[in-house]
Write a structure and sequence with these properties.
The complex is a heterodimer of chains A (330) and B (204). Chain A contains 14 helices and two strands; from the N terminus they run ααααααββαααααααα. With 330 residues, chain A is mainly alpha-helical. A two-stranded antiparallel ribbon of chain A has the order 1-2. In chain A, α5 runs antiparallel to α6 and α10 packs parallel to α12. The radius of gyration of chain B is 20 Å and the shape is globular. With 204 residues, chain B is mainly alpha-helical. In chain B, α3 packs across α4. Helices cover 69% and strands 0% of the residues of chain B. Chain B has two domains: 102 residues, Rna Polymerase Sigma Factor, Chain: A; 102 residues, Arc Repressor Mutant, subunit A, CATH 1.10.10. At the A-B interface, α1, α3, α4, α5 and α11 of A face α2, α3, α5, α6 and α7 of B.
Chain lengths: 330, 204
């Protein structure tokens, strides 16, 4: 053992992190090396010295204050939107699955989601029709849809927020929201435009619209244009996870690529894509994107699993290759 | 200070955590609150020691647990919940350390009873002044000097030293928390101790 090694071993020994056999080797070296013994003295002195800046227990008032503030903040959070709750439910299902029943549970989760969605829109539709009818009855006039200033088309009813029947009467109060078609033009730096693009990435029924919006958001992210604060990264991750269209998912993955090293969530989202995405091109792209973090424990675990269980032989092969590139550190 | 739980205790703790986590993932606020209670004092302790400010520690606490609430759905049980929470907290702390401007620290020279300037490391090795600081002032000055030396480390070095020396965590766990390998954490620790030794040895 040379002295440089010994210095490092001295530190690991001082902190109880010596590997098997290292302690004896170190003792032997120290027995014959006064400089290194001095080094050890110095390190032990340092350990003692830094205790002059001791770790203090947080004062009870600080703890109480922090807890109350957190409680208030959590209480103030808006209730989650229906697609966020659905997404959460799907994610939880995936998290709890073993390999074999994956397909069955997947169908179940999607079926439940679709069924619930279907009922939701049906109920919405019925409610809006019922409301329109009641409105007509209450006012004894045909319901007049409000024309928009811009397009002149009648405004659709978006949803009904409350229906209150006055006691002992035929009168009903209905609160509803109207959808008014609008348009807006602006630059990609405009926060309003970005907000709409993010909504479009999740909320549009047209794959073409989602494709366009995710494509734009992804290129913003790759160019490094403040992609985190406005939640664009999040929107891309949701698109990567849930969009049914493979082209959209590919664009999202492309947009997230520059952040895989610095953002653990991005890395995990790409890992999920590698494990669960149905499209082999996307899974392959995911492997390539993960190369900068291929030494991470979680990444290696997923690569091991993919190397054994992916149905595509090329992907199994590539995973094995990547694993063999990084030497096992432990 | 070091928590050396037995392996059995740790397994048991993880099992009961797992139930709470699943409930919290399903939306139970009560379960999330229970999880917070388990770890929040430790989080405050860490943030307080690193930032030196109750105000900053409180902010970090808020941000960390709000993030945890938001992203608990992403927890995949690949690591312990403790590691996951600490990963969030250390990232926030690192951000804060990076944002802070480095104070230029002239530092107070430590003087013993006879009015002689002290080489602090020598003093400690000699076991003279340190074990019985003559006054509160000496103790306080020493504390300030240590803080200043710690502030000269890079944020990552500071973090690794904090987690290893002051919080007693294993290097492997530190690596997981900082999203790196045990080897890298070890090397960072070497650099940190070397730098601290240079800072604190002989002030003249």
């Amino acid at each position: 053992m040379n002295c440089e090694h010994a210095h490092e071993r001295i530190v690991t020994a001082a902190y109880g992190e010596s590997a098997a056999g290292e302690m004896q080797e170190l003792e032997r070296h120290l027995a014959g090396c006064p400089e290194c013994r001095e080094e050890q003295e110095q390190l032990l002195a340092l350990k003692q010295l830094v205790e002059a800046h001791p770790v203090m227990e947080p004062d009870a008032n600080l703890v109480a204050r922090s807890r109350m503030r957190l409680d208030a903040a959590l209480d103030a959070l808006p209730p989650r939107r229906w697609y966020e709750r659905l997404g959460q439910r799907l994610r939880n299902n995936f998290a709890n699955l073993e390999a074999a029943p994956v397909a069955a549970c997947l169908l179940l989760a999607l079926g439940a989601g679709a069924g619930w969605l279907g009922n939701y829109t049906l109920a919405l539709h019925r409610a809006s029709r019922a409301a329109a009818v009641q409105m007509a009855q209450a006012t004894k006039q045909p319901a007049q849809p409000v024309a928009t200033a811009e397009t002149g088309a009648p405004a659709e009813i978006a949803n009904i927020s409350s229906i209150v029947r006055q006691p002992n009467s035929h009168r009903v109060e209905v609160r509803y929201n109207q959808m008014i078609p609008q348009r807006i033009e602006g630059s990609l730096d405009d926060p309003a435009i970005r907000q709409l693009l993010m909504l479009a990435s999740q909320n549009s029924s047209s794959a073409g619209v989602r494709n366009d919006s995710v494509g734009l958001l992804a290129s913003e992210c790759r160019a490094g244009h403040s992609c985190q604060a406005a939640g664009i990264r999040d929107a891309l991750m949701v698109a990567l996870r849930y969009d049914k269209n493979a082209g959209v998912r590919q664009k999202a993955l492309h947009g997230l690529e520059p952040y895989v090293t610095e953002d653990v969530r991005v890395r995990d989202a790409v890992l999920e894509a590698l494990m669960n995405d149905g499209d082999p091109e996307i899974r392959t792209a995911a492997i390539n994107i993960l190369e900068p973090v291929e030494a991470d424990t979680s990444v290696r675990q997923v690569l091991h699993s993919v190397a054994n269980t992916d149905r595509n032989p090329y992907i199994r092969n590539v995973s094995r290759q990547v694993l063999s590139q990084v030497p096992e550190i432990q | 200070m070091n928590e050396r739980k037995s392996a059995e205790e740790r397994t048991q703790a993880r099992a009961s955590d797992a139930e709470l986590i699943r409930e919290a993932q399903a939306g139970s606020r009560a379960a999330f609150d229970a999880l917070v209670r388990q770890y929040d004092q430790k989080v405050l302790r860490l943030a307080l020691h690193l930032t030196g400010s109750e105000h900053d520690a409180e902010d970090i606490y808020q941000e960390a647990f709000l993030k945890a609430f938001r992203y608990i759905g992403n927890f995949r049980f690949e690591c312990s919940f403790y590691t996951w929470i600490y990963r969030i907290v250390t990232n926030l702390c690192l951000d804060r350390l990076r944002r802070r401007k480095t104070r230029r620290e002239d530092g107070a020279v430590l003087v013993n009873h006879s009015g002689e300037e002290m080489d602090m490391l020598a003093a400690v090795s000699d076991d003279r002044s340190f074990s019985n600081p003559a006054s509160e002032l000496e103790r306080k000055l020493l504390g300030e000097r240590i803080k200043a030396a710690l502030e000269k480390l890079t944020p990552r070095e500071r973090m690794v030293f904090e987690l290893k020396h002051y919080q007693g965590l294993r290097l492997r766990v530190i690596g997981e928390m900082l999203n790196t390998t045990e080897e890298t954490a070890k090397n960072t620790l070497f650099r940190a101790t070397k730098k601290l030794r240079t800072q604190l040895a002989g002030l003249r």
